[in-house]
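Bench notes, afternoon.
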Amino acid sequence: MEANVIPIMNNIVDKMDMRLTYQRKVILNVLIENIDKHLTANDIYTLIKSKHNIIGMATIYRTIDILNKKGIVIKHDFGDSAAKYELEIEQNKNHHHLICKKCGKVIEMSGLLKDDFYETLLQDKGFECTDYKLKIFGYCADCRNA
């Protein structure tokens, strides 16, 4: 395991509150190594297979579902028929997604909403926000210029 992967893995294992099986470790390693990407279950399978590991699709789906319920993995629907997954880590918290309707590219953005967003919702609307996901659909620069 790479040195920069170990602290992330340790934080995840602490949060999991469950046994870290070989299969879970392999799947988590793939997610950590691709932390800047949104992966489908099939992407995860392909990346695992490329490293000569064999884990079935059912195990991948089951593990991702468990990790999603534990708040370790976020499941996204970007409108392209396949769910995509990313690790929920502190550095990724409250980032937003710009999704190109033509090519499907997903661009991550932070800072689109003011830092006092939660407080404003509570003060102005009496609504206590515990989490939010912002998806903005449009056309990326490459598709607009094509």
